[in-house]
Amino acid sequence: MKKSLFGIYFLFLFLGLSAQEPLSIHITDKNGFPDNEVYDLLQDNEGNIWISANKGLFKYDGKKFKQLTHPKKQGRSLLNLNLDERNRVWCNNLAGQFFYVEDDELKLFGNYQNLIKGIFTDFTFLNDKLVFKIKLAPGKAKTISVDLDTKEKSTLLMDNNGNSIGLSLRDTLYYMNNNLKEFKFQLYSSVSDETKFLRSIKKEKKTYFSNFFKIDNQFWILRSNKHHVNVRFFRYDDALIEIKVPDELYKLRIENIIKKGDSYYLSTSNGLYVCTYKNNEIFVEQNYLKGDFITNSLFDVNDNLWVSTLDKSIFIIPNEQLKNVSELNSISALAKKNDTICYVGTREGVLYEYNKLSNQFRKSDYSDGFFIRSLSYNERSKSLLYISDETIFKIDRNNTINKLNNEYTSGIKNAEPINESTFVLSCSNGTYILGDLKTSMIMDKRAYTSLYSRSSDKIYVSDVTGLHKYDRNYNKEKEIRIAENPIYTFEMSESSNGIIWLATYDKGVLGMRNDSIVKYLNNTNGLASNVINTIKADGNYLWVATEKGLQYYNIANNSFQALTQQDGINSFAIKHIEILGNTVLFNSHLGLFSFDKEKGFKNRNPQKPYIESVQIQEKDTIISKKYILPQVESNIQFNFNIKGYHSNQTLTYQYMLEGVDKQWITLNGEADYVKYNSLPDGSFKLRYRIVDDSKGMITEGDNVEIKVTLPFYKTILFWSIVFTTSLSIIVLYYRRRTKRLKDAQKIQLEKAEISRDLVFSQLENLRSQMNPHFIFNALNSIQDYIIINEKRLAREYLIKFAKLIRLYLDQSRKNQIVLEEELSTLNIYLELEKERFEDDFNYEIVVDENLNVNDIYVPSLLIQPYVENALKHGLLHKMNNKFLSVSFVKSNDQQEMICTILDNGIGREASAEINKKRFKNHVSFATSANQKRVQLLNTAMNKEIKVNTTDLYDIAGEASGTKVTINLPL
């Protein structure tokens, strides 16, 4: 069926008749910036962006917007951003307050409301002095300078009646002075405190305001009327030269001018104008954000263009070459006609013809109203194949529509021209050859895509079973595999060198030549992602759209260039790509976009990352190049950032802690911090960097040294001390234990020795008690009784003597005896001695009634020797009336028993004289034995037995006896 296109004409649809608008990012409260009315922009030397707005002062550090305010600030708005030589940001307000930023805080410098009186005042700096102008009266003003350190005010000796403070360079201020006839361009030197006339402009009634701009070391002066329009430009370069201004700028208010490369950016009341300057004339090239009042613009450290507006907040243009052609969001097919024209089909069944030169769309009035599935332009026949869910028709070079048979096809995915009249169709129910007269099936499996190779004159078909090759007669030649595995591809494109590129679903892109895979493009060799959206060959280049951006692959040198969200691409869901000469046209669900492939790529490395903040033990701390941390407080977090606007979609942070990590660790997603809950002791170096995956670019930040010290109780010194101390304690313990054992052994030995000595002493006492004299005397007494036939007395005496000997022997085996036994023994002994002394000797034994004689123990054989000494040495030599008293009483403190042996003998001195005469060097055996025994008993008992001997004298001073006192502990 043929139908003439006469009468079927194209209507103009005005979609972007003006210059294309570059893609921009609109900064609003959704991005954390809460103001629409922006007055000024400024970038400091560290790359921070400062914004003065209706709601105050804001800082953008590359990550977030932070508002800075001051409790004494009057009103909300802040104006006139400026930098002093110390890189401090300054601003002021209509209330006459001047502020500066230091240590990330807004500080009030001074309030000069009494001088400024609510008038808009710009300011500048001269040699560490704040300089501003105040009006005194119409046509009269004076310039005030304030020392930044002392805040001392002074008036500059200059005549500045213009509206602007002017432009300062180091120690010189350039300004415009008004008089009745002319405007004088003058300078003031703060060094010499003098003014100098430079040039003058003839005064015109319609000009009033002067603005100054420094561009390429030249002064540009903007003159305007009281409404800030009817502008005139002058350039000063040893002369004032007027610059010709285009008519469309003449009646606009111009707020600012910046220069980048060869382009001049003018912030106006009708958008941002991009101009060129040549031969003292300005030429308009582009007009961005037309209709918006632009207050300022700047390029940040990442080469993004920031544009502030008076009522629509801020726009960021990452890449001026990336243009928004149309906001059509339902584009379903693109087909290149030539280097100027591209066909555009939509899901609503509308067909457009887009002309890149005029930036116009022409809409065909033919539409079946069904989803356009594919558009394929056949260069050989100069015809367009139109495929929708309802219709297949071909528009030939004569604008004739030929409807084709689609009775057997279903779900057509794409159409590939083979020759002037034949196409291969990939459908959901198979692969078909479509001609003008008939349609035939060559494969009955669900097809994804197909390609006719001009270099090999073969047809390649991809379906659910893999990739297949057909000849020109549509006979299947072979299935193409990789290592016996099928190849699954959803799109194919052939480059000029004969390589057929295969887009896979998640394995990157394969390059095939002569049915063999010769290229593998994936995320290990430059591809941003293995997930592919679409591909398009461009001569010996290949365009690849992935989930992380649009990449341009140079086949010859295996290099990539990329466009990402950092460049302004607002969606990576790119569906179709067409190349119109140097223009790349692509679409996503957000519209149709274009860029010049020779100018669209920005070779910008990511900015050097820096540490934005540090937390130790969950608390903010000072940022430093070195940290020394105790191990118990080694919970530390580093937060990374880069200056300027950037997209985190393609930028990732990597870090490596040398001494802990052996390789770089990549942070997941948009994470921008690293945290260590605890670090071992040692010295470490934190390295970190930013990686642009789409461009393979890496920028590393400054290293941070970390030294972690163990708590003292974990150090080698501590454990050395502990070991040494423990060893010393153990040694000391065993030494003391050994000493105790030795001491105990010594004590036992001493006790044994004492016991032995006591035994010997007891034997000695026993020997003393049983000395030959006593026994001889006792036996003589018995003999005398026998001779005189006193058998009874002899028997009684013998019984007592035997009993006494038995008691002595029995007590010699004991260390202690009860007092009762001692008294009994003493009594028998004294009775025997009394028999010997006959009636010349008397004695008494007195026992305190408070003493329990059966409970008190005394050392055996202790008291008797003292009694014997009293008899032997004291009473024996007394002529008559011999008396001996032995008493036992309890001490007043009840702790001792006191035994007193009292005799009325001749005394120790007389006895010693007698013994001296009788026995030379005589020493009483009983006395020495008793002394030794007392010493032994005191040592063994740990209680002291005290023996005290007292000589008794009568009134005349004559010896009257001896008293021995024995204190025995109870």
Provide a short characterization of the protein structure:
By secondary structure, this protein is α+β, with helices and mostly antiparallel strands. Helices cover 16% and strands 44% of the residues.
Descriptive account of the structure:
This protein is α+β, with helices and mostly antiparallel strands and about 950 residues long. About 15% of the residues lie in helices and about 45% in strands. The protein contains 9 helices and 77 strands. The strands form 18 sheets. Strands 63, 65, 66, 68, 69 and 70 form a 6-stranded mixed beta sheet that branches. Strands 1-40-39-38-37 form a 5-stranded antiparallel beta sheet, with no helix packed on it. It has a 5-stranded antiparallel beta sheet with strand order 2-36-35-34-33, with no helix packed on it. Strand 22 and strand 23 form a beta hairpin. Helix 3 (about 715-770) runs antiparallel to helix 9 (about 925-940). The longest helix has about 55 residues, at about 715-770. The model is unreliable at about 1-20 (pLDDT under 50).
